[in-house]
Amino acid sequence: MGIKNKSKEAVIRSITHSMQVSLESYFLSYNAYPEESQLQLSQLIEKFNTKGISMPLPKNPFTGNPYSQNDNSGQITYQWNNTTSKYTLIGFGINNHEKIVNVSN
Q1: Is the dihedral of CA 44, 47, 53, 57 positive or negative?
Q2: Backbone torsion region of residue 85, taken as left when φ is above 0, otherwise alpha when ψ lies between -120 and 50, otherwise beta
Q3: % of the chain at pLDDT higher than 70
Q4: Which of 30, 51, 75, 102 gets the most CB atoms within 10 Å of its CB?
């Protein structure tokens, strides 16, 4: 893997950790986490914005464009487990094949 991909993956890790901080802020405001079973990053940020947690949509380092649900690399997903009341954020690398970061509460 080239240095360019490693630096792009570092950006994915950074965005994922920023989203984790935002999820904790959401929890402090609403005493709950978003309960949708799965959201793409763009959907999660839209949910934050509708709840008054203003957040711009970051650029996907692999595409150079703001994140979208159709990104074929660098996707970040939010998953909610209703049974355990836990969330997981997963960041993927090139072609969305390899998980490069996985954080949860």
Answers
A1: positive
A2: left
A3: 99
A4: 75
DSSP state of 64: S
In the numeric block, the tokens 């464009």 are attached to 65
78 token code pair = 């939010």
**Do the strands 76-81 and 86-92 form a parallel or antiparallel pair, or are they unpaired?**
antiparallel
Are 23 and 105 a contacting pair, CB within 8 Å? yes
Are 51 and 66 within 8 A, CB to CB?
no
Cα 38 → chain centroid = 11
pLDDT for 20 beyond 90: yes
The sign of the dihedral angle between the CA atoms of 51, 67, 94, 64 is negative
What angle (nearest 5°) sits at the alpha carbon of residue 22, between those of residues 16 and 24? Answer: 110
